C-alpha cells in the first residue's frame, strides 16, 4: 500500500504529479479555455473581498493564495488562523466571501470559524479533501482538492492540491473581473497543464535534496527565508521540518532578517533560501549575503538562472526546473517536503506518526 516507499509520506510526496494533474483536469477541462469551479456558480464580480481562514499547513496555503488573489484578481484578501479568528469575532462587512481550507474538513477551530461567518458573509466556500466532512457539508459551496486519502500526519500532497485549486480560483476571479488579458490567462492555463511534468523534474532532484538534508540533521536550529510567494512556503518548510524531525525551525520573510533573526546567525546555523529567479530575487540574494557574511550556511533552492547568479559561497544547492512565476510555491513545495522527510529519516524519527500530533484535530 506504500507502493514500494518506506513511508506514506514518501509515497504521498511522490504521487503529487498525479493528484495535481487530477485537480487541474477537473477545474480546467482539457480543450477548454476557462476555469470551471465544479458544481459551483460563483461570480467574482459580485464579491468585493475575501476572508480566508484555516490552521497549520492549510493556513500557509491561504497565505500563498492571498498573493494570487491580490495580484491576479485585484481582490483585497484577509487571512487568519482559525483559533484567532473565531474568538476575535472580526466584523464581516460588504460583499465578502468567507473561504475555509481544510484537508480533513473536521478541524474544530476552522469549523467554528465557519459557523461564526454564517449569516454574515455573502458566500461560505470551502476547499476540502473530504467531501463528506462537516466543513464541506456546512458550506454553500465545497470545492474538492482531489488529493486522495492522505495518511502521513504531515500534510504534503493535500497542500500542493490546495494551492493548485486556490490558484485556479484566483484565475477564475481574474477572468470574471477582467484583471488579466486573455493572453495572460492562456499563459497561466498552459503553465498549469504543464505543471505535473515539471513536478516530476523537481522530484528527480531527490538525491541532491537528500544530501542537503543530511547536513540539516546535524543542526539544532534551521532558518527558512523567502520573499513574496516564497514567504509562506518558507514557513511551511519550517513547519514540516519541526513536525517530523523535531529540529527547531523558523520561516521568515527575507526582508525581516535584519529586524531580529540575524542575531541567531553563526557557523552552526543552516539557512534554507527559497529563491526562484523572480522580480524580488536580487533582494533575497542580498539577504543571503548578509547570512554568509556571518558564516551562516546557506542551502540555496533556485533555478538555473538564479544559481548562475548567486551560487558563490553557498553551502549547498538544490536546482529546480524553471516554471511560470505563479507556480513556484507549488513546485518549491517538493524540496521543502523532501528536506524535512530526509532529515527525519536521518534522525530516525517516526515520519508518518510524529509524536504528539494527530491527523485530524477535532478538539480545540
Ligand atoms: C501540518 C499539518 C497540520 C494541518 C492542520 C489543519 O503538516 O498537517 O498543520 O494542516 O492541522 O488540518 P486540516 O487541513 O485537516 O484542517
Automatic annotation (TrEMBL):
GO terms for cellular component: cytosol. Its main location: cytoplasm. GO terms for molecular function: carbohydrate derivative binding; glutamine-fructose-6-phosphate transaminase (isomerizing) activity. The active site is at residue 359. It catalyses: D-fructose 6-phosphate + L-glutamine = D-glucosamine 6-phosphate + L-glutamate. It is found in: Cytoplasm. Catalyzes the first step in hexosamine metabolism, converting fructose-6P into glucosamine-6P using glutamine as a nitrogen source. Homodimer. This is Glutamine--fructose-6-phosphate aminotransferase [isomerizing]. It comes from Ruegeria atlantica. The lineage of its organism: Bacteria, Pseudomonadati, Pseudomonadota, Alphaproteobacteria, Rhodobacterales. The gene is nodM.
Amino acid at each position: 500500500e506504500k507502493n514500494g516507499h518506506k513511508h506514506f509520506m514518501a509515497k504521498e510526496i511522490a504521487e503529487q504529479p498525479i493528484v495535481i494533474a487530477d485537480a487541474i483536469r477537473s477545474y480546467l477541462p482539457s480543450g477548454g479555455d476557462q476555469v470551471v469551479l465544479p458544481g459551483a456558480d460563483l461570480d467574482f464580480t459580485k464579491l468585493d473581498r475575501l476572508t480566508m481562514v484555516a490552521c497549520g499547513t492549510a493556513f500557509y496555503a491561504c497565505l500563498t493564495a492571498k498573493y494570487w488573489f491580490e495580484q491576479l484578481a485585484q481582490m483585497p484578501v484577509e487571512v487568519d488562523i482559525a483559533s484567532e479568528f473565531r474568538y476575535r469575532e472580526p466584523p464581516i462587512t460588504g460583499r465578502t466571501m468567507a473561504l475555509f481550507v481544510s484537508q480533513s474538513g473536521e478541524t474544530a477551530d476552522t469549523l467554528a470559524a465557519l459557523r461564526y461567518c454564517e449569516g454574515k458573509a455573502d458566500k461560505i466556500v470551502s476547499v476540502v479533501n473530504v467531501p463528506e466532512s462537516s466543513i464541506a457539508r456546512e458550506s454553500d459551496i465545497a470545492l474538492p482538492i482531489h488529493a486522495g486519502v492522505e495518511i502521513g500526519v504531515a500534510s504534503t500532497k493535500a497542500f500542493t492540491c490546495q494551492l493548485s485549486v486556490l490558484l485556479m480560483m484566483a484565475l477564475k476571479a481574474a477572468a470574471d473581473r477582467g484583471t488579466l488579458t486573455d493572453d495572460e490567462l492562456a499563459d497561466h492555463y498552459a503553465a498549469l497543464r504543464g505543471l505535473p511534468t515539471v513536478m516530476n523534474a523537481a522530484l528527480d532532484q531527490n538525491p541532491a535534496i537528500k544530501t542537503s538534508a543530511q547536513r540539516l540533521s546535524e543542526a539544532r536550529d534551521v532558518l527558512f527565508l523567502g520573499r513574496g510567494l516564497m514567504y509562506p512556503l518558507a514557513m511551511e518548510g519550517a513547519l514540516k521540518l519541526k513536525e517530523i524531525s523535531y529540529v527547531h525551525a523558523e520561516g521568515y520573510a527575507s526582508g525581516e532578517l535584519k529586524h531580529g533573526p540575524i542575531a541567531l546567525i553563526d557557523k552552526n546555523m543552516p539557512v534554507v533560501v527559497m529563491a526562484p529567479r523572480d522580480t524580488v530575487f536580487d533582494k533575497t540574494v542580498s539577504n543571503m549575503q548578509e547570512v554568509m557574511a556571518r558564516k551562516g550556511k546557506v542551502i540555496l533552492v533556485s533555478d538555473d538562472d538564479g544559481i548562475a547568479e548567486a551560487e558563490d559561497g553557498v553551502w549547498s544547492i538544490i536546482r529546480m526546473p524553471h516554471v511560470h512565476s505563479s507556480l513556484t510555491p507549488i513546485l518549491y513545495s517538493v524540496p521543502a517536503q523532501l528536506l524535512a522527510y530526509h532529515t527525519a529519516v536521518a534522525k530516525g524519527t517516526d515520519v508518518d506518526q510524529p509524536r504528539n500530533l494527530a491527523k485530524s484535530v477535532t478538539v480545540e
